[in-house]
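Table S2 (continued). Query chain:
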Amino acid sequence: MRAGRWCVAVAVPAMAIASCGGVKKHESSGGGGTKTSGTIRLAVVPKAVGFSFWEDAHKGATCAASKLKDVNVNWDGVNAETDVSGQVDLLQNFLASGVNGLVYAATDAKTLYNVTKSAMDKKTPVVNIDSGTNPQPASVPVFATDNVAAARKVPDLIAKQLGKKGGKVAFIPFQAGTVTNDQRSQGFKEGLKKHPELKLVATQSSQSDVNTALRVTSDILTAHPDLNAIFAANEPGVVGAAQAVRQAGKANKIVIVGWDAAPDEVKGVQNGEISALVVQNPFRMGYDSVNAIVKKIRQDSAPKSEDTGVTFVTKSNIDDPNVQSLLKPSCSKPPTVGS
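Corresponding output:
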């Protein structure tokens, strides 16, 4: 069961979906093909609802739709990024209902390719945000961070904090098999090659769950009481790792570099518990992907993949107005950095 899901319709209330309990078929919407007139109904599906990152992507998607004519964004998602089968069911349901376009972040690269293939068979345009599939069809663009390049710089941030002596480092990835996880792992390990003074002593997955991250980080701290630094590769991992360090009485003594910018992460930077955050631009992912797929539907254009950028946020720049626009995006004040 996926309790607690919610959705939104923008621009044409009379065409809105009746409830989030299921997808109501829009009889006048035929699904695929160029649609030059009438209401466009889009399904926008994150990896999971309830995370700050995805709520910012949601803001971007609905902002774009609000500036376009006759575009409905139907937002829905599973509660956990590990619920791959649940996401497949949800996306297939949207396709069966006759949506005109599908924007989604793949929870599992190989499994979700089958959803994209189903959409292509129906001639329903697809755009991926944040995480694509394997294989990634040439006609399906990905609006996402260059995760490899960004993660490659994380060891630089750690080395700057630890100095020439370096130290022992732990890595908290989140979900093997997702494109973003695997790319960040690749980039981080490539970056470590430039820093022989940094020794990777432990790698434990958070499974994109705060409590799991807390537990595995606590285990790592027990096994390596002289640990110097932690890299946690997504929001739940960062929050859980910071809690474990705090509970161990080592706050501000262990360097933590994290990914994303949930409120607890931002607070950690402000109080010094987190040294740096790799902050993506989910608002832009949502905004640009909706614009691209609507253009594809109305004009049969061929959208291209886009690097939506990152900003490295530290205590020294967190109060900068441009950084604040990234941390607290809105339709009236969209991000001016991270692009």
